[in-house]
DNA sequence: AAATGCATTAATCAACATGATTGATTTATT
DNA sequence: AATAAATCAATCATGTTGATTAATGCATTT
């Protein structure tokens, strides 16, 4: 198993590209890979042989019925690698074990009024211990890393979060763990999850907006998730917005669940079941949020030229649909001289996007091609 | 000479990287290249030998005086390749021949009240013919391409520009020319010029704002100039801006020479000599423009995470400095929760940025590494 | 209806090309 | 003698090409 992207056992760029193509488009025969990648059939033979021997690919049943030699589709081996994800949210801490095919094998969570370092660390440590104990030694050896999804600067949320300031979360959790630990903004992980596990018809360039307690996002350029020099790319919540009506001058003041909670005067539960917002209030909020989101989206289009906005969030599907529609309506009112208005679609992962994306961090590090031509 | 980036005679990625490093940081010995690139000394020996034989590099005088074997710095061979640039502006058409070291060998220009296809085409064709006639056959063979810098959708400027709608500028000029022709937004070429020929201390990520009759820009991410799927990245002039005071809701309505001309009620000449704007008017304009630019810059920082804004334009240096300072002041007033305010510096190329960038298009295509690790 | 030939497609074998590597060696200097 | 620059010789990694094998559907012949 790969210990570093360079070390022994590490996969080459083209090997990672093969895996990502099969992950995105499903099982396919070697001949399809020859078409999609710019490689000879011989190279595909060599690369897939190595990937099968390493346990990352399985040969499926041969497909007959067409002219020519029957083809043998290659699929991801679900046990090829295992990934751990930890998500720290405003109300919920989550821990998950995800397999190579993207399925969640184990999931546990804990509700809190607000996240505290000692409680979250204890939840993570105990959860990890329990999960690892249920795995066979062979499975444990297949774990390639732990990814953490957390908002930037937790200590900026308020004085009750100040304990986070002096905690190096990544370092503390990495101590004693036999695999690497990754940390990223939760909005960026949600975007990465859509890129790795989500719908397979996404273009090479898009922004992903994630509406949770706060508003975050991610951006994909030339097929690759952008992190930026300070790993703060996709900080859509911090985008400046003309402030009309209640709320301040940044996106998260207008387009977030916390803005909605401010309108109804109480907090909403961390799942869809207790989402009881008066329709009129939700509609007003969606209108305001949609205008703010449309403004941010047009800025993004002008700046980096992209055709699509994906919107998702920790909200019920109906609310997400309402936000998307409000955004489409608001886009029509935006000035667009010199640029094209983007298409708006909904994400597919909803509340699971961030935890899936957390587990996707080690996956991405070891198994995704960087600047993808897919 | 390379006819295509793949064809015979084309340079490999590492060969292009060597040339770009020497272009950016000046002549250096092979040992310095070993340090900067992630290659062995042997590989550098092989690659530089090939580049010297191909006429792209010259060995300088050996440097003695230090411990160890003296080093021989390698410099760009000025005659290694020649590039043509054509810039079409609101008041000025320009044509230039630029050598491999970035020096302008020949330059000619023509003023017009507004650009007309037949006049510009005639200027370009006659100019090219004259220039080519003065070159020796060996020099002509070294021309690798023609780059055109023009605003997007010229026909959107007004009804007198409608003739441009049905003209495929690139195709028309390419007919009969024995080298490829490239076309890009003039704001993007100005950014590319700064990247290729400009100051050598630029970071891997920045936006470049270019204030001319209209406002344009370019964006560099991970060391590479971004074009985007519709080649419209860096369309900063189209960014939405909260409209305060006179002007509309996009950046170019507030931060452009045309906005300044609207204030003084007449048009300004295409050179610094006749720039006679009343100081109070210019200060007001710079304040408004600075606020609009600061807004756009903070959007960019939140979206893609970058530390620097370069501002340049077809304006006198003093005016450019005033704009930069107005922008710095306005940035302090922007909300910045969750992100860092970018640094603002002035560009180095001024009015020559766009024509240099035009000639830089073929240079970039054949001689720059794509996703640069520099 | 069964047998045959053949185009078609998938996949591999064997030899080779390219671009890099490593370890030993040469050169010129303080 | 130590140091730094540069090269030589052998080798490795990754991909290529051209020939070859394999398994099938389809059209034609028997």
From TrEMBL, chains A, B:
Pfam families: ROK (PF00480). SUPFAM superfamilies: Actin-like ATPase domain, Winged helix' DNA-binding domain. Gene3D superfamilies: 3.30.420.40, Winged helix-like DNA-binding domain superfamily/Winged helix DNA-binding domain. The lineage of its organism: Bacteria, Pseudomonadati, Pseudomonadota, Alphaproteobacteria, Rhodobacterales. This is ROK family transcriptional regulator. InterPro entries: ATPase_NBD (IPR043129), ROK (IPR000600), WH-like_DNA-bd_sf (IPR036388), WH_DNA-bd_sf (IPR036390). It comes from the Bacteria.
């Amino acid at each position: 198993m790969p210990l570093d992207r360079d070390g022994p056992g590490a996969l080459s760029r083209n090997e990672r590209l093969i895996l990502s193509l099969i992950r995105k488009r499903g099982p396919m025969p070697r001949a399809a890979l020859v078409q999609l990648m710019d490689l000879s059939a011989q190279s595909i033979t060599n690369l897939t042989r190595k990937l099968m021997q390493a346990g990352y690919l399985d040969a499926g049943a041969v497909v007959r019925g067409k002219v020519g030699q029957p083809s043998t589709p290659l699929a991801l081996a679900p046990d090829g690698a295992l990934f751990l994800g930890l998500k720290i949210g405003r109300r919920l801490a989550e821990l998950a074990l995800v397999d190579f095919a993207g399925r969640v094998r184990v999931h546990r969570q804990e509700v809190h009024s607000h996240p505290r370092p000692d409680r979250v660390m204890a939840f993570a440590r105990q959860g990890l211990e329990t999960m690892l104990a249920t795995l066979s030694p062979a499975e444990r050896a297949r774990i390639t890393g732990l990814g953490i999804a957390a908002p930037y600067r937790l200590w900026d949320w308020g004085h009750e979060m100040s304990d986070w300031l002096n905690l190096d979360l990544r370092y503390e959790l990495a101590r004693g763990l036999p695999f690497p630990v990754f940390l990223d903004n939760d909005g960026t992980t949600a975007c990465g999850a859509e890129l790795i596990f989500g719908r397979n018809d996404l273009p090479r360039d898009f922004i992903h907006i994630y509406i949770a307690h706060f508003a975050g996002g991610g951006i994909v350029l030339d097929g690759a998730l952008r992190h930026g020099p300070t790993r703060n790319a996709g900080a859509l919540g911090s985008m400046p917005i003309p402030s009309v009506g209640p709320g301040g001058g940044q996106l998260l003041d207008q387009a977030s669940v916390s803005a909605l909670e401010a309108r109804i005067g109480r907090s909403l539960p961390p799942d869809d079941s207790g989402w009881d917002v008066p329709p009129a209030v939700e509609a007003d909020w969606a209108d305001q949020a949609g205008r703010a989101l449309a403004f941010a989206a047009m800025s993004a289009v002008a700046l980096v030229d992209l055709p699509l906005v994906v919107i998702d969030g920790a909200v019920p599907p109906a609310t997400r649909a309402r936000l998307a529609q409000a955004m489409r309506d608001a886009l029509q009112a935006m000035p667009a001289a010199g640029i094209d208005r983007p298409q708006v679609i909904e994400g597919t992962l909803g509340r699971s996007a961030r935890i899936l994306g957390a587990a996707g961090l080690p996956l991405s590090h070891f198994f995704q091609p960087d600047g993808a031509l897919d």
